[in-house]
């Protein structure tokens, strides 16, 4: 039998990432293989995931908020966090979403924009997985234009009273705390309502978090709403350092960075599974990997996987460098990598024939999940317009 090499061996992954970072990724992969891999297909079919149980294990592993400093967080580099996301999404996008929402949205909002009291109350427990968070920005009628949100917060004496609804909120039905963004009565220098963030314990009277059912994508993830009916919060619930959309958008950039790396894991897993299947599936007295059309599909997928892995590594290096990374660069990574990984998984599914539509094999599950990843944290089209504006200097967004 001909000698084979894994995609990462051909790519030379050990020259793309540091040895220590790859060793860390190996630790994450081993834990996931031992605790999650064999169960994920069933969770996907059942439309659920044991979020609390997994959060405690992932907290013990050290991946929750691992790229944040202090308060029980790991203080890891951006690249190390990205490689963890890559291993998580190699299992399932829903699992990576759980970790992204916890660490890059809820915990990052607290860490970057919160008061010292808010940080000390929530971050250590969230890092350990003993408290789950969610992030309320998207609304039933407001997605790509967060400035159009209807959720509002009004002062009543020393308190704030929140009313409104958020939609498509990962972790909401099982969360202990929600970071909710709302318009206030104040206005900025252009006369627009000021958006502020609020730390909302989900057991606060007036808060409901019903679960969204009947999803056909990202099924191994718990998705819900946040319904706010005259929710009264003390003044201390407001994130003191966040004023305007800069607050929530900074959190979204953190989550998008995790996606840039994460989707490379889905593509790698689909390619690895396709290589294994085509090498063992016999038709016409030979493995189907021996046919030219199979090798063409495999080689194309490997080329695309290599490209998005190298782009992720480059952006990780930028984020870890003194110069940092720009929102446009993150948009580039999210736009290219999510779309390319989706196409890789779609194309490879065909190599499995009828077996490819079952939960026994991962490419179609990854492809279905990546339809959601292509849409959330800024749709594919929004990132195209973001880069179009950077390239041309012309804003094509509606004013």
TrEMBL record:
The keyword Transit peptide applies. Gene3D superfamilies: Acyl-CoA dehydrogenase/oxidase, N-terminal domain, Butyryl-CoA Dehydrogenase, subunit A, domain 2, Butyryl-CoA Dehydrogenase, subunit A, domain 3. SUPFAM superfamilies: Acyl-CoA dehydrogenase C-terminal domain-like (SSF47203), Acyl-CoA dehydrogenase NM domain-like (SSF56645). This is Acyl-CoA dehydrogenase. The lineage of its organism: Bacteria, Bacillati, Actinomycetota, Actinomycetes, Micrococcales. PANTHER family: GLUTARYL-COA DEHYDROGENASE, MITOCHONDRIAL. Transmembrane segments: none annotated. Its cofactor is FAD. It comes from Brevibacterium rongguiense. The keyword NADP does not apply.
């Amino acid at each position: 039998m001909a000698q084979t090499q894994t995609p990462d061996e051909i790519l030379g992954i050990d020259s793309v990432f540091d040895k220590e970072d790859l060793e860390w990724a190996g630790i994450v992969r081993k834990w996931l293989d031992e605790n999650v891999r064999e169960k994920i297909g069933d969770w996907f079919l059942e439309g659920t995931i044991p979020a609390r149980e997994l959060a405690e294990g992932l907290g013990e592993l050290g991946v929750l908020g691992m790229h944040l400093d202090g308060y029980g967080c790991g203080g890891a580099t951006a690249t190390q966090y990205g490689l963890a996301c890559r291993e998580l999404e190699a299992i399932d996008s829903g699992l990576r979403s759980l970790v992204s929402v916890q660490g890059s949205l809820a915990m990052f909002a607290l860490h970057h924009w919160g008061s010292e009291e808010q940080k000390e109350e929530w971050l250590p427990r969230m890092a350990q997985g003993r408290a789950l968070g969610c992030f309320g920005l998207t609304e039933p009628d407001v997605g790509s234009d967060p400035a159009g949100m209807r959720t509002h917060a009004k002062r009543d004496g020393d308190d704030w009273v929140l009313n409104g609804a958020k939609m498509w909120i990962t972790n909401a039905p099982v969360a202990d705390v929600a970071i909710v963004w709302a318009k206030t009565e104040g206005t900025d220098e252009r006369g627009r309502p000021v958006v502020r963030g609020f730390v909302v314990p989900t057991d606060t009277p007036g808060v409901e978090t019903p679960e969204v059912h009947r999803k056909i994508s990202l099924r191994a993830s718990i998705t819900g709403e946040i319904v706010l009916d005259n929710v009264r919060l003390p003044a201390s619930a407001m994130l003191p350092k966040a004023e305007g959309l800069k607050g929530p958008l900074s959190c979204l950039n953190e989550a998008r960075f995790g996606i840039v790396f994460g989707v490379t894991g889905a593509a790698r897993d689909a390619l690895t599974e396709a290589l294994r299947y085509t090498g063992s599936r016999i038709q016409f007295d030979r493995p189907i990997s021996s046919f030219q059309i199979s090798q063409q599909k495999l080689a194309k997928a490997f080329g695309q996987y290599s490209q998005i892995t190298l782009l992720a590594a480059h952006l990780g290096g930028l984020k870890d460098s003194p110069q940092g990374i720009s929102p446009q660069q993150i948009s580039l990574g999210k736009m290219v990598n999510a779309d390319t990984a989706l196409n890789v998984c779609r194309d490879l599914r065909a190599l499995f024939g009828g077996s490819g539509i079952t939960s026994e094999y991962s490419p179609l599950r990854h492809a279905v999940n990546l339809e959601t990843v292509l849409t959330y944290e800024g749709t594919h089209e929004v990132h195209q317009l973001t880069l179009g504006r950077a390239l041309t200097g012309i804003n094509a967004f509606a004013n």
